[in-house]
Task: structure prediction
Amino acid sequence: DGGITQSPKYLFRKEGQNVTLSCEQNLNHDAMYWYRQDPGQGLRLIYYSQIVNDFQKGDIAEGYSVSREKKESFPLTVTSAQKNPTAFYLCASRGQGANYGYTFGSGTRLTVV
Amino acid sequence: GESVGLHLPTLSVQEGDNSIINCAYSNSASDYFIWYKQESGKGPQFIIDIRSNMDKRQGQRVTVLLNKTVKHLSLQIAATQPGDSAVYFCAESISGNTPLVFGKGTRLSVIA
Result:
């Protein structure tokens, strides 16, 4: 089955630690996105990538980093510079063509302990 | 600030009734709109989309209406069921090359 997989589902981070969230898709989609969702809030864009080896900052990129070495993979690193990282992180992908909608992963819940 | 927002953060409806969820957008250049459903602890799921050259689009039990004059989008769910209980987000995009901008969401609760 084609889809987008995020791992892990739950992640705990100590103060001052960097952690990396995985996002893999086998939909052959060119574009991939990372969003952050806080309780009772909408989705805010962290980073996105339209093509391999290229990515752009979203609205809340500070304290985060990404890479796009492969079309299938778009990992997100939450660095120690991110002062309030506890949130639900969603990865999405979008293919070419007339449908501009995203396919979302099931999310990673990150908690600082 | 957010360019896509919602008129009502929560909505409770009786099972079997129709639900209407509203959304306002501020960017007149947006040409694509989409509704997602998100259940607790899960990623959003596509419900229905509409382009700016249309006023209405229907799916299975759902209808999206677009009023470009007042920059308003609505999602209508017919014969609402308990399984429809979730948070619903609208989102907009200027073109296929720009990321979707999401509203804050409306929580729909279905009363059995």
User: Anything to note?
Assistant: The CA atoms of residues 22 and 75 of chain A lie 5 Å apart. The mean pLDDT of chain A is 92. The first strand of chain A starts at residue 4 and ends at 7.
